[in-house]
Design goal:
With 875 residues, this protein is α/β, with parallel strands linked by helices. The protein has 34 helices and 31 strands. Strands 12-22-21-14-15-16-17-13 form an eight-stranded mixed β-sheet. The protein binds phosphoenolpyruvate and magnesium ion. Phosphoenolpyruvate binds next to β25 and α30.
Length: 875
Amino acid sequence: MSTKWVYQFNEGNAEMRNLLGGKGANLAEMTGLGLPIPQGFTVTTEACTNYYDCGENISDEVQGQIFDAMKALENIQGKEFGDLEDPLLVSVRSGARVSMPGMMDTILNLGLNDVAVEGFAKKTGNPRFAYDSYRRFIQMFADVVKEVDKAKFEAVLDEMKEAKGAKFDTDLTADDLKEVIVRYKEIYKSELGEDFPQEPKEQLLEAIKAVFRSWDNPRAIYYRRMNDIPGDWGTAVNVQTMVFGNMGDTSGTGVAFTRNPSTGEKQIYGEYLINAQGEDVVAGVRTPQPITRLKEDLPECYEQFMQIAKTLEDHYRDMQDMEFTIQEGKLYFLQTRNGKRTAPAALRIACELVDEGMITKEEAVSRIEAKALDQLLHPRFDPEAIKAAVPIGEALPASPGAATGKVYFTAETAKLHHEAGEKVILVRLETSPEDIEGMHAAEGILTARGGMTSHAAVVARGMGTACVAGCGDIQLDEEKGLFILGGKTVREGDYISIDGSTGKVYYGEIRTIPATISGNFDRIMTWADEIRTLKVRTNADTPADALNAVKFGAEGIGLCRTEHMFFDAERIPKIRRMILSRTKEAREIALNQLIPYQKKDFKELYEVMEGKPVTIRFLDPPLHEFLPTTLEEISALAKDMNVTVEEINMTRASLHEFNPMMGHRGCRLAVTYPEIAKMQTRAVMEAAIEVKQEKGFDIVPEIMIPLVGEKKELQFVKNVVVETAEKVKAYYESDIDYHIGTMIEIPRAALLANEIAEEAEFFSFGTNDLTQMTFGFSRDDAGKFLEAYYDNKIYESDPFAKLDQDGVGQLIAMAAEKGRKTRPDIKLGICGEHGGDPASVEFCHKVGLNYVSCSPYRVPIARLAAAQAALNDKQ
Ligand code: PEP
Ligand code: MG
């Protein structure tokens, strides 16, 4: 049987999301529920993939099915597509498996041309509306399909408004709009060298192609990378009969949520605009009315709207984000989807749905996006500092959190200054999807236009970035690089602070403090902990970090990077002295001076961790990282060591390496200088024994040897560790147990994991180095060229952030299996950055690691991701 590429809305259902995309599947489901949905059809995600496979062409077979579906739609609507007197008009919209708001393209009013618009004007008895629809169509088609800058069209509209003394678009007459259309078509022709297409079938195919293409536009690629969406999913295209919210004062269009997407409160929440089309609300060009006003304006529509909203929430058992249009008093739903929400709202909604008996605890856990928990950990203003601050303005509290930073007016400058290490607040008239990277770089976003569902608000909320939107009092002069608010002139580079929870805007920098977490968070986390099998540890080198991580639920330390303990002012001269020592004896003297510091650090860590496992990794970086670089420091060190500056410089030169990441580092240091491993072993063991004796915690130190690639290498260092540890035990007359393991971070170690496991009691996958060495990408430099790899669709995401399951993942799975074969009870963990990335955590669960270890602030994310991995496993 040939493939079915196109489905009428009455042929699908919500289960068919992968094929029909989220929007298409929900439109089909709502059709099945008998709700008022303008009918249409969905061209499948498979057709999108097919389009790319055919060299960016819609095959004859797919085209045939599209036009058959159009015929069927004509029958349903009793109108013909392309008819000159009463044309069937459609919208063409993207709809991927998961919603990607604003990332892809939409075209409205398709099917109009120079003749049909006249018929349409007559038929509707509303010429102003007909010409307005046509001019919008030309503008959208030129912008989306042909990539003509829409500013060129907007300038014409603005000129016309000025010439006619019109304040709003709606003040322009039919004749004014006819003139606009003439000028629009002139722009179209001069920009593209061809006439605006008059044939509706051609318009339709071109529009569908444009939506397919938009799957691969740079902002969609960026969004997918940020949200772990695979590039081969493709987007579906929905072709839907137009209904019009711009037919006068009994028409309108809006978006609404069944619960408040910022707080989670159970209450209808939304906005609408009378006499407008959908893009006016979403783009935030006009500031809309709250949905409750609909009760006064059109009470019957309001009642029906409320009832359908409830039906939808009950049906999907989740908060819904709905788009609707009222055409001359008749209500239509254009889409529904599970609404995007802030993390606090997500937790509250999930907990309340459990309390309402709508969903199970497992469903609640599976619904919280693990990465979104980041938002809960957001800063707020220091209450003392904010007391003294006087706001210069106030607008909509669009996305919670406090932010302070320097003002920049374009996404590009915001991104550049962020990369230069500045904290940035992006200030825009309104944002659009092209601004995504600048928004991502910003601590906070302030817009002059737009409501709570404007692009800025929705996107900032999704990213967990503070946002104040619709600040109409702002006088913004982007060209001069300044704005005036509350009588204050703020220039590019000046500090401002915004509070996305109150909507207030302040001049200057205000101190922020970390967030506190609500009871809903604890409930969800407790449920997650009941479900997950993977343990979660933290990477921490200081007692303060470790304590913080324990508060976030860390069950141990998976990586303590001991080198970080040597960088403070008192200690660094001592390690430098050790490095510059010429003899073993001199080195030992220097190392002995370091023991008290290391021991003190370890004791504090053990105390904070109260008997939870602590993995201490021995010295790892190339030694030159510790050496002085300024003449001042070099002279001080020379004086301290009683040597000349030249001698120090000679040692520095001798330590120079062409490729330090593959140089004298990791266990190679202990192979050449076993006394380093001795010193660290003494410190670890003495600290553990003393804390065990003093506090009664059951401590079993875990000593981790880095950068091992060969069993004999590990054996060598292990011998040093065991010999020293046994001496310490004898001295203290202690029977303390301890474990020695290794990192697996060199491909050779993964390949020979069966042999290495003969010596190692545990493996911890160091996926930072393992990624670096598997790809051959320097972990410090890859950022410079990865962008080109994304642009050319060679790699979809940064392998240092999201584990490369195909390549590096194979090494992990293989090493885990080989390790277990040799030593069935070997403990397996991961301590590379991937340990806090949800997709990577799921992979770790799948290959059967015992724990993941990540930075303290990511511990809750890993706990939730681990629970979700366990739930996915069960399905
Ligand atoms: C690793 O390589 O993954 C690791 C955790 O060690 P580091 O980042 O310190 O090299
Ligand atoms: Mg490493």
